[in-house]
Amino acid sequence: MKLEPRELLKQAGLRITAPRLAVLEWLYTHPHTTAEQVADGVRARLGTVSTQAVYDVLHACTRSDLVRRIEPAGHPARYETRTGDNHHHLVCRGCGRTEDVDCVVGDAPCLEPSDTHGFVIDEAEVVFWGYCPDCV
Asked: How many whole angstroms separate alpha carbon 7 and alpha carbon 54?
């Protein structure tokens, strides 16, 4: 059962504000969108909201694990509300469309580094690159 944005903010110890609610609600229905796209969506709902306010909300929600920030190489950062699992992404080289992919299956020797250099590894990020059906 997915919690409502109001309840998620409350559980995260964040104040419940109209911009925070609007950002989370936008991201639930528009995953993998840029901060600019989120700002446009929030403005359509609330009217005047500064871009900086949207960035502040995204930062607070990312810090609180309500939002995940992904940064595909050569593309602007994108945000999604799917957090707390080890999923990966498909990214279109043409248009930047991004889709979720559940955890990789099969042999994946490249997910274990040959030398950790003393790091304690807790996550591996995989991005699959190619062309979406619209760009093929």
From this structure: 20
Give the count of beta carbons closer than 10 Å to the beta carbon of residue 8.
Answer: 21
| Residues 76 and 9 occupy one common structural domain | yes
Question: Domain range spanning residue 52?
Answer: 5-80
Tokens of 31: 């995953």
Q: List, in sequence order, every residue forming a beta bridge with 127; answer none if it has no partner.
A: 89
Summarize pLDDT for 57-116 with one digit per residue, the tens.
999 999 999 999 999 998 999 999 999 887 889 999 999 999 998 876 555 545 677 888
Extract the tokens encoding 114: 């040959």
Q: How many domains in the chain?
A: 2
Q: Report how far residue 25's alpha carbon sits from residue 32's, in angstroms, rounded to the nearest whole number.
A: 13
CATH classification of the domain holding 122: 3.30.1490
Residue 6's φ and ψ, nearest 5 degrees, are: -60, -45
pTM, whole model, 2 decimals?
0.85
